[in-house]
Write a structure and sequence with these properties.
Blueprint lengths: L7 H10 L16 E6 L5 H9 L3 E6 L3 H11 L12 E4 L3 H6 L6 E7 L17 H10 E11 L2 H12 L4 E6 L10 H8 L5 E7 L1
Parallel strand pairs: 1-2, 1-4, 2-3, 4-5
Antiparallel strand pairs: 5-7, 6-7
Helix pairs in contact: 1-3
C-alpha cells in the first residue's frame, strides 16, 4: 500500500531486493523447525530481531505499507554494504488475514501482533485484527501449546481486546502491563512510553 511517492532507493529495494525474500514465491531454507507469522511488522525491527535470535525458525513477516517494507529491506541491504539474504525470513506484502485463513491446521507455532492499527471508530471495529472471527482462525492454525503475542498502547484497542479474549475458550490468556522478558522491543513501544501511554501485552497459549 502506497502512502507517498517512493524515493529512488526505496523503489530499488522493492523492485530488485524484495523479490529475493517475497513469500510465497521464495521458499525458506531447508531444515527449519517451526513456522512463525508476524502481522503488521511496521518498521521491521521486531521481525528482524526475532529472525536473528531464532535461526532455526521460519518467520513470515507481513506488512501492507510500502514504507514499512522498505524500512525492513533497508536494514537487510544497508546502502554501500553487501545485502543480507536471511534464509529464515520471508516478507508478505498483502493483507495477512487471507494468508492466515489459508494456512493448514496447526501450521504455526507462534503468531505476533505488535501495536496494530487500532481502527478507533466503532464503525471500523470489524477491521481490527483482534476480532472473534480472526481469533477462531488463529486458534485453528496455531498448534497446541503455540503462542499468540499481542501488544497495544491504545486504550480503545486494549478494552476491545480484553472483551474479545474474554469471549473465547481456545486460548489461556495472560495480560501484562510490562513487556515480558524475551519479547523484542519496538519503536511503537518507545513512542507510546514517550507520549505517556501505557502499553499492554497479552500472551495467548493455545489449549
Amino acid at each position: 500500500m502506497k502512502a507517498k511517492a517512493l524515493r529512488p532507493r526505496q523503489a530499488w529495494l522493492l523492485a530488485e531486493f524484495l523479490p529475493h525474500l517475497a513469500w510465497p514465491d521464495v521458499p525458506f531454507a531447508p531444515g527449519l523447525r517451526e513456522l512463525w507469522l508476524e502481522v503488521g511488522f511496521g518498521g521491521g525491527e521486531h521481525a528482524l530481531a526475532l529472525s536473528q535470535a531464532n535461526p532455526q525458525v521460519g518467520l513470515i513477516a507481513a506488512e501492507v505499507f510500502e514504507s514499512g517494507v522498505c524500512s525492513l529491506l533497508s536494514r537487510l541491504a544497508p546502502e554501500g554494504k553487501p545485502p543480507h539474504m536471511p534464509g529464515n525470513l520471508r516478507l508478505f506484502t498483502d493483507d495477512a488475514r487471507p494468508l492466515l485463513r489459508g494456512m493448514g491446521d496447526g501450521a504455526l507455532a507462534k503468531l505476533f501482533l505488535m501495536f496494530p492499527d487500532p481502527w478507533p471508530k466503532a464503525r471500523h471495529a470489524k477491521r481490527r485484527f483482534v476480532h472473534p472471527e480472526l481469533v477462531a482462525a488463529a486458534a485453528r492454525v496455531l498448534r497446541a501449546g503455540g503462542e499468540w503475542r499481542i501488544a497495544s498502547d491504545d486504550p480503545t484497542y486494549q478494552d476491545w481486546t480484553d472483551a474479545v479474549l474474554a469471549g473465547q475458550s481456545a486460548f489461556a490468556v495472560t495480560r501484562a502491563s510490562k513487556r515480558p522478558e524475551g519479547w523484542p522491543a519496538t519503536r511503537y513501544e518507545a513512542k507510546a512510553l514517550a507520549a505517556g501511554r501505557a502499553p499492554v501485552w497479552w500472551s495467548l497459549i493455545r489449549r
